[in-house]
From TrEMBL:
This is Putative hemin import ATP-binding protein HrtA. Belongs to the ABC transporter superfamily. HrtA family. It is found in: Cell membrane. Keywords: ATP-binding, Cell membrane, Membrane, Nucleotide-binding, Transport. InterPro entries: AAA+_ATPase, ABC_transporter-like_ATP-bd, ABC_transporter-like_CS, ABC_transpr_LolD-like, MacB-like_ATP-bd, P-loop_NTPase. It comes from Fictibacillus norfolkensis. SMART domains: AAA. It is a peripheral membrane protein.
Length: 224
């Protein structure tokens, strides 16, 4: 089933009098429970495509269909609601809140996504996901005491704690060495399969493509 599809998506940026078309009619479908990687040269429009797909910025033309609902024609409140409850995000850097513990970062995300659970269940859910990312022993640690790889594991836990349908990841391994990158990719692969999450990720690293189900190559605003 296609949980997510992009139809003739276009994006034009205006700088002064200059108009530049950055996405030139993108068509793409994501299959449920699979990982799709976007690869291509710097400036080819990968991050722009990912952020429009995730409802973080508007399209100039075309459709983004999530469960057959066109999110490009929704109000910003409706998109915000879908983003908070049904989407998860991972970026190049973990962007953890420096004054919250690992547990608190995850608990906050449950609140943001308005997951209705009692305290006991909250503990269970957080313990479960920390176990899955191999950080059970760092539950009460602050970000400053975590390594780069551990921080990215927390970011991944935070991205999936509310059981999103779609995970968007923009160069999730770009700040890590090869060994850590492979660990993070196999974690994303494992979580995608077992939690049945559909993942769209951007990567520069061809070595990471062995962990994904589909590769979409972009060049100059087009899928090639
Ligand atoms: N808000 C914006 N205003 C104007 N131009 C923009 C804006 N956002 C992106 N662009 C331009 O769109 C093009 C594509 O940018 P994008 O960030 O999508 O590329 P990318 O493929 O993710 O590159 P990289 O691999 O370097 O991250 C670039 O030329 C960029 O300068
Ligand atoms: Mg980018």
């Amino acid at each position: 089933m296609d949980i997510f599809s992009i139809d003739e998506l276009r994006k034009t940026f205006t700088n002064g009098d200059m108009k530049e078309e950055i996405l030139k009619g993108i068509n793409l479908t994501l299959k449920e429970g699979e990982i799709t990687a976007l690869v291509g040269p710097s400036g080819s429009g990968k991050s722009t495509l990912l952020t429009i797909a995730a409802g973080l910025q508007p399209a100039s033309d075309g459709k983004v269909l999530f469960n057959d609902i066109n999110i490009t024609s929704m109000t910003s409140e409706q998109v915000r609601d879908i983003r908070a409850k049904q989407f998860g995000f991972v970026f190049q850097f973990a962007h953890l809140v420096p004054f919250l513990t690992v547990w608190e970062q995850l608990s906050l995300m449950l609140d943001v996504s308005e997951v209705k659970i009692n305290n006991e269940k909250r503990e269970q859910e957080i313990d479960y996901i920390l176990d899955r990312v191999g950080l059970s022993n760092r539950k009460h640690a602050y970000p400053s005491s975590l390594s780069g790889g551990e921080k990215q594991r927390v970011a991944i836990a935070r991205a999936v704690i509310h059981k999103p349908k779609v995970l968007f990841a923009d160069e999730p391994t770009a700040s890590l060495d090869t060994k850590k990158s492979k660990e993070i990719m196999s974690l994303i692969q494992d979580l995608t399969k077992t939690l049945n999450i559909t993942t769209l990720m951007v990567t520069h690293d061809e070595e990471m493509l062995s962990y994904v189900d589909h590769v979409v190559r972009m060049s100059d605003g087009r899928v090639v």
